[in-house]
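Please fill in the sequence for the structure shown.

STRUCTURE ENCODING:
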């Protein structure tokens, strides 16, 4: 299996607004800050710095948005997936937890503002996000989410069975958590728009410029590519799951977990009046996660994790996805055709929150987004730009720590965790007398 799946297979590659004109780095240039990686994290960092008059250069081995920023499903939900807010506070301690919670829960405000300011063409819709209750016993935890998130300023509410059906068009849910600030985008279009904004603000973006090494030179850092070098005071690595070379052992600081995304043919206008009628993003609330939304053409874009034959046997995989979608929405009568199918790679950390590493004086790296791409990558630019501008480490929203290798159990732990969640969901649904989808 190749290290990365073909970029061109995705719906986003076929439909995103064109990328700005860029070229490979040739020769030597100077900068205050050199950023490696033109995904959301790198580009929002560059944008923050360029707007403050900092000379910033972004180096990208492929093209802007080539990695997770251009391959994700396009959901933009400013939440934490694995941990509750009280658990995060206990795990991270103060003031780190409260700072990170504030940034993450307000991330969509930042995303929306950047899209408006730079007129980024990326199919941005902010019609909310629903995490459904797939069984009656899930309601208690959802009601607690409402209290926890609203206490930090988020705009969420519990919706009962009738309202969740009105919002989603699905009769399968017993209630849900409705996050009014949730949104969705064409993620590659958003990444390309950020690159264009960086250039507009005076920053430089070089593509097809893989970093081969970083060495000290005259009290600064020389960031080297095959055809040139950037001499900078500070260096930021923001390559995430798509880290290849650049700094010794940085690619060992996380473990890869794959996810797949697929898009149907456009649904008919009639079906769209009853299937996701409010154009929201839906998490079906099951342990075996199924998240879906529309794109601008009216295609359902859905994502799942590989498991067993799912993700390897395409005929079986398409059947699983179609059966789940039609079970959720019995009003879909036509045959479902999955016209696009692609994979993305997640840089997983056991805490499922980003990790900020001090590599050397003036050099940092950030990995471990763990699948929280659009809002998380966008808000991280504020943290990294503050570091580059000289904000003391103790005042940042992420603690800087030494680079360390991801534990071996992360090679299999996330998959085992998914299977555990799936099994628990099955048992609790049986206990509640709640219906189970096909292939559960």
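FILLED IN BY: designer on duty
SEQUENCE:
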């Amino acid at each position: 299996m190749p290290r990365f799946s073909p970029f061109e297979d995705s719906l986003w590659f076929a439909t995103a607004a064109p990328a700005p004109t860029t070229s490979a780095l040739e020769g030597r240039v100077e900068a205050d800050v050199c950023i490696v990686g033109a995904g959301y994290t790198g580009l929002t960092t560059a944008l923050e710095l360029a707007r403050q008059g900092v000379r910033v250069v972004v180096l990208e081995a492929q093209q802007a948005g080539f990695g997770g920023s251009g391959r994700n499903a396009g959901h933009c939900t400013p939440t934490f997936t694995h941990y509750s807010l009280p658990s995060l506070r206990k795990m991270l301690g103060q003031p780190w937890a409260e700072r990170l919670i504030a940034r993450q829960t307000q991330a969509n405000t930042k995303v929306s503002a950047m899209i408006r300011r730079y007129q980024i063409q990326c199919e941005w819709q902010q019609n909310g996000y629903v995490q459904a209750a797939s069984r009656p016993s899930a309601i208690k935890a959802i009601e607690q989410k409402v209290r926890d998130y609203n206490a930090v300023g988020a705009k969420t509410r519990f919706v009962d069975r009738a309202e969740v059906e009105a919002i989603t068009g699905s009769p399968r849910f017993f209630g849900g958590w409705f996050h009014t600030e949730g949104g969705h985008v064409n993620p590659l279009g958003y990444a390309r728009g950020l690159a264009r904004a960086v250039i507009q603000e005076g920053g430089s973006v070089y593509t097809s410029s893989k970093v081969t090494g970083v060495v000290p030179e005259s009290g600064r850092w020389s960031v080297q590519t095959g055809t040139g070098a950037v001499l900078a005071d500070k260096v930021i690595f923001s390559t995430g799951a798509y880290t290849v070379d650049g700094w010794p052992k940085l690619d060992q600081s996380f473990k890869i977990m794959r996810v797949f995304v697929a898009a149907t043919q456009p649904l008919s206008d009639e079906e769209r009046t009853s299937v996701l009628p409010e154009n929201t993003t839906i998490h079906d609330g099951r342990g075996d996660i199924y998240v879906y939304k529309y794109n601008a053409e009216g295609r359902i874009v859905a994502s799942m994790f590989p498991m067993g034959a799912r993700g390897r046997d395409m005929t079986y995989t398409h059947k699983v996805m179609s059966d789940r979608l039609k079970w959720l929405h019995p009003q879909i009568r036509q045959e479902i055709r999955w016209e696009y199918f692609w994979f993305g790679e997640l840089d997983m950390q056991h805490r499922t929150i980003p990790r900020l590493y001090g590599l050397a004086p003036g050099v940092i790296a950030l990995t471990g987004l763990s699948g929280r791409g659009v809002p998380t990558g966008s808000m991280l630019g504020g943290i990294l730009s503050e570091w580059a501008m000289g904000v003391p480490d103790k005042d940042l929203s992420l603690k800087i720590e030494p680079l360390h290798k991801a534990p071996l159990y992360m090679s299999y732990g996330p998959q085992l965790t998914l299977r555990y969640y799936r099994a628990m969901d099955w048992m609790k649904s049986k206990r509640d007398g709640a219906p189970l989808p096909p292939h559960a």
